[in-house]
Specification:
By secondary structure, the chain is an all-alpha fold. It has a domain of about 140 residues: Serine Threonine Protein Phosphatase 5, Tetratricopeptide repeat. The protein contains 10 helices and no strands. It comes from Schizaphis graminum.
């Protein structure tokens, strides 16, 4: 099974334009078109339809952010080294802040992630997946930036395209999705297991998944 497919077929009838209107984003047609392109052509966290697929309750979002931040505080790895778990939790914070209309906060969060990704150390295990991790971070950054009407074109210039990913990178992408959906039980658990299975199928020797 293709690991980078979008699960949009499972999403309800709420159109993407309705979604942006609901979020109170005043976007012109060109900006909406660009956002659709990022959503469809790249693998940002907003491409995965988390809210629609898991049916997460908007009233619980703030609690989720608090819980995720508590988990982040418990990660004791060296601050200058990449940590898959930390990366996934940070992405969730960005996503939840955005969905709860805290766009500027969401932007600052992803900006810090992207800056870190440019300077952090990838150990031998994670180095082979770094293109996938950076793709997710940069695509998410571009999506949030464009939502705030900040020029995002340059943010995607050096991003490796998904259709150029090798099996290891595709597996890493699935692993990130699995980790993230696990934080949205109970529906997210089933989705996470599917992505974890795909990750193992694509790159079965990786102990991380």
């Amino acid at each position: 099974a293709e690991c980078v497919e979008h699960l949009s077929d499972e999403v309800g009838t709420l159109s993407i334009n309705d979604h942006w209107n609901e979020l109170g984003l005043d976007l012109d047609e060109n900006q909406r078109t660009q956002l659709k392109e990022i959503k469809n052509d790249y693998e940002s966290i907003f491409s995965w339809n988390i809210q629609q697929l898991t049916g997460c309750n908007q009233n619980l979002m703030i609690n989720l952010i608090e819980k995720v931040r508590e988990k982040l505080e418990m990660i004791t790895d060296k601050k200058d080294e990449y940590n898959l778990n930390r990366f996934c939790l940070q992405l969730i914070v960005c996503h939840e802040l955005y969905i709860s209309k805290s766009y500027k906060e969401s932007y600052l969060e992803i900006e810090n992630i992207v800056k870190f990704m440019k300077t952090c150390k990838f150990d031998e295990s994670n180095k082979q997946y770094s293109n996938a991790y950076c793709h997710i971070a940069d695509a998410t950054y571009a999506y949030i930036a464009l939502s705030l009407k900040i020029d995002s074109e340059k943010l995607l210039k050096n991003v490796k395209e998904v259709n150029s990913f090798n099996c290891a990178e595709k597996a890493a992408l699935c692993a990130v999705k699995a980790r993230i959906f696990m934080e949205y039980p109970p529906k997210g658990n089933d989705i996470a297991l599917k992505f974890a299975d795909r990750a193992r199928t694509l790159h079965s020797t990786e102990p991380e998944w």
